[in-house]
Each structure stands twice: as structure tokens, then as C-alpha cells.
Amino acid sequence: MTWLYVLCGAAVGAPLRYLTDRAVQSRHDSVFPWGTFTANVTGCLILGLLTGATTAGAASSQLYLFLGTGLCGALTTYSTFSYETLRLAESGARLFAALNAIASVVAGLGAAFAGVALAEALWM
User: Fold this and answer.
1) The whole model's pTM is what?
2) HEC letters along the chain
């Protein structure tokens, strides 16, 4: 039955990732991949919050499978991040490629830590 939670979460996360990317990117006239960046950082925040909630006993393992593994797994995308960073470097936008790599790691980790801290403040 666990696969059903993951499947349902992914069925929500994948279109949400696409729609987030399109909505954010359409508002920026830049080569920087703001849509993917936003989806990835948002997913890190959700996963951090969910991890903290699960650790505190405020979220079930089923909710973790649905939101964490399914939704966040489909919402965030390391492959697109990698492809877009490579594309930037190959097109001569090496500064944007470096900024994307550094900002994505720093913001993603920061969002995950912030999510855990928020969960601890709420449920511990």
C-alpha cells in the first residue's frame, strides 16, 4: 500500500513542478532558471518541515510517503537543475551557471534547515 501514497503524491508533485516552473519563469526575462530554482527550494522547505513534523510525531509515516517521497520527489528535480546548469555553462553564461549551482545548494539546504526549525518551534 505504501506505493499508492508515493504514486498519489507524485501525481500531484509532477504537474505542480511544471506549473511552478512555467509561472515563475514567465515572470523573469533572464537566462537564470528561476522556475526550477523556486520549485527545488520550495520542495526543500516542505521536506524539512515534514521531516521535523514526523520526528516530533505530528505527521504520520503515510503523510511522509505522500508528501515527502511522492510530492517533493516529483516537485524537486536534480536532473533539470543539472541540465540547466550545464546548458548555461555551454552557452557561455558561466557566471549564471556557477550562481545557479551555488545558490541552489545554499538556498536548498537553508530552506530544509528552516523547515526543520519551524517544525521544532511548532511541535516540540
Assistant:
1) 0.94
2) CHHHHHHHHHHHHHHHHHHHHHHHHCCCCCCCCHHHHHHHHHHHHHHHHHHHHHHCCCCCHHHHHHHHHHHHHHHCCHHHHHHHHHHHHHCCCHHHHHHHHHHHHHHHHHHHHHHHHHHHHHHC
